[in-house]
Structure formats: C-alpha cells, structure tokens
Amino acid sequence: MTRHFLSTLDWSRAELQGLLDDARALQKHPIGRELEGKSVALLFFNPSLRTRTTFELGVHQLGGKAIVLEPGKGAWPIEFAELLDGSTPVMDGDAEEHVREVAKVLSRYVDAIAVRAFPKFQRWEDDRKDSVVQAFARHATVPVINMETITHPCQELALLMALQERLGATDGKRFTLTWTYHPRPLNTAVANSALIIAAKFGFDVTLLCPSADYLLDERYLKAAEDMCRHHGRALKITHDPKEGYLGADVVYAKSWGALPFFGRWDEEKPQREAARHFMVDAAKMAQTPNALFSHCLPVRRNVKVTDEVLDSPRAIHIDEAENRLHVQKALLRRLIAR
Ligand code: CP
Questions:
Q1: CATH number at residue 130
Q2: Residue 76 domain-assigned?
Q3: Which residues, including other chains, have CB under 8 Å from residue 65's CB and lie 6 or more apart?
Q4: How much is the pLDDT for 95?
C-alpha cells in the first residue's frame, strides 16, 4: 500500500523520531544523490515562502527534480466533488479537469505529490473533511504529502527538531500553545498540529485562548488529550494568560479564527479585537522559567509578537524555519528514495 504523509496521527512516535534523527544527519551532510532520477510535483493552491523554497531546494540537494504547479494559475483549475454513489458531477463550472485525472496523470510522471490547500473558510463542517489532499491520496498511486491543509505535519517535524536541539528529551516538559491576535481569521492548521505533536512527544500541554469559541476541532483536542494521558501527562485549557504562561518551557504562538463563527467572520471580529492583549510580549514571557519561544512564520511583528521576544536569544523560530529543509528531505528519502 502507498504510504502517505497526511497527518502525524498516522505515524508512530518511533517513525517520526526516525525522521528527526535522519534530518539531523542531513543538516550536517546536506548534499546527496538519493533522489537521482526522482521527481516531485508541488501543488500550491495557496501562497508560500518557506514551504515552496524548502521543498524545491530539498529535492534539488538530493539530486531530484521538483515541479511547482499552481492550479487555476498556470495549471488548469481542478474539480474535487465526488457524489455519494461514486460518480462525479456535471463539470459545467470553472474547473477544467477532475482530481481523478490529475492525481492519476501526475502519478505516471512523478514519484510523489505534495499539496498545499487551505480551508475555504466558509463552513468548517466542509473544510474539516480535508477534501483536497484526501482526494489526491485516494486517487494517486504515489505518496502524497501534506504541505498544509487543516494540519501542517512538516511544520510539526521542524518544530520538534528545534525543540529537541534546545531541550534534549521533551518528556515531562511543559508546552503552551497560545492564541495570539491577528487582524484576519487564520487557518487552525498549525494550532492543531502544535497540540498533537507536543502531546505525541510527551509534553504537558496547555492550550491558551481567549474563550471557549477559540477551542480547536474536537478531533485534535481529543487526539492530544489521549496522547497526553498515554504518557501520564495532561492537556490543560485556560483562557487566562497568567495561568497559560506559568511554568511553560515552551511558548508557541499562533492566531486562528474561532470555529463557531466560520463563514460569519464579521460576527467574530469584536471578540478578536477584544483579545489584542494576547500578543506575546516580554512581560508574559517573564512569567515562565525562561521559556523558549517559537512561531511557524509568517509573523506580523508587534501584532502577534513583540520585537523584544522575536529578537531574544530564547526565540527559535528561525531554527524551526531552517529545519523545514532538513525534515522534508528526511521525509522524501523515507518515502521515495532509491
Ligand atoms: N510556515 C510555513 O508553512 O511558511 P509558508 O507559508 O511561507 O510556506
């Protein structure tokens, strides 16, 4: 059966640790030939700086070829709808071809397909199905990699690699995921991912957010809770910044839109504006025992996080960004190397 990388929930801790160990070796010896003659299609439905650069560069550094495609902008727009009886709808809209053809055709050309497809931000009930990447996984005959949809598993690996570099063993350490202000409602992907990877690697996990409206999808809350319990740890939820920062070894910041307001963002706006004080600053960080700080990037300075925190020696967001290169090369070696 084809092995995909859609969510770290499908991979064991030992398998993920194997990728992280391999990534550390690749950091020391970045150039190789393991992907010689191999190719990877990178499908971007949304913008990117880090993901695109690190995947293209990573494939190149291992001797392979990456092909970037932007459906609807240089490549044909794609239809994803499939009916309950297995048929497809009449395609009389904007899409020129169906994912069934796209996934199968690309599988004849390339050795892996990587997909970035953010939610449409209209109905969470629809977006939580993760239909785009799941359709590629169903119809492709080569490995499919999630480059951020409703989770961001490559970012998870990069974060863990940065944390292990600084903390060593992570079991029993305390990880706080804090919501932080942003003028727009953003994807919950990195927040979902931060919770599940921290739980999987044995942290005591705290989710700090302005109110119950900002709780993450129950699928990820439950997964994190179960994994914490498995390790004898706990998932704590708080809306009080003072409590959220207390005792944290790691503070990870991300902004996201409140799920109950999905598609009705004007109604969420007053709550969001009232929570500007969740911005990560030196005073909050001072409540921790010298915690590490990180963020997936891009980050709006002095909106989500102050200069003082981002420019402090405890900030590891640049290391985390660098690690995207190493962990994705390790992943590609694992999935498609000769
Ligand atoms: N963190 C991350 O995925 O960055 P990009 O959106 O720039 O790819």
A1: 3.40.50.1370
A2: yes
A3: 38, 39, 40, 59
A4: 96
